[in-house]
Amino acid sequence: MKIAVCIKQVPTREWQPRLNDDKTWIRDQDASFEMNEPDAYALEEALRLKEKHGGEVVVCSAGPARVAQVIREALARGADRAIHVEDDGLASADAFVTSGALAAAMQEEKFDLTLTGLQSDDQGFAQVGVILAERLGQPHATIIMEVQVEGGALRVKRELEGGWFQWVAMPLPAVLTIQSGINQLRYATLKGIMAAKKKDIRKATVPAGLTSKQKIASLYVPEKGKKTHLIAGSPAEAAKELVRMLRDEARVIA
Description:
Layout: E1 2-6, E2 9-11, E3 33-35, H1 37-53, E4 56-63, H2 68-77, E5 81-86, H3 95-106, E6 113-117, H4 128-136, E7 140-150, E8 153-159, E9 165-171, E10 174-178, H5 190-196, E11 201-204, H6 235-248
Helix pairs in contact: 2-5, 3-4
């Protein structure tokens, strides 16, 4: 079974964002980066499917040269090889451009199954996997919590609203977007880190004519502030007014 896993490098959660001069994205040179968390769960699920059914796991990523950091991490965890669509413009690209760059690089590989994280921790649009499936001409399912391979087909468990789940039968090849928490993540071993240095990373380029469908007009860091409000009256009256404010204005109680 030949499985592709699309991974993204995102700013670490502990880093305090600093915006660029145009206020349209972050200052990359000031940031620290890590693998997108939902993508890490997609990678783990792919590795488990390989261990159970055999085959190959190929990580695919689109972004600048620094993305090699998370690619090597994925290889150290157990992926067999990688495809890197390298371009500085992909650092803040929208889902349409990112999926187009990935699809062009992946098309010739003829993957049986493609896994992506449900969404990215930076932009969070949850669209790359869906658009990628359309570009590859394959069926897709989202918010996946369990994957079962049965012969030449899939049976997947989707998370719905209100604590409900849905089982869906799908043909192969297919694209799935994986929900965080589907499994228990593994860490790279010393043996895996050493082995990753010898694994192949194929470089690919962005196809000509690929243009964004959306534009970030402006970003800003939320301002923190506080306001003191004095409630007049007797203790009983003040308590009654406080409850009303919490219920009707702050809406923190019912």
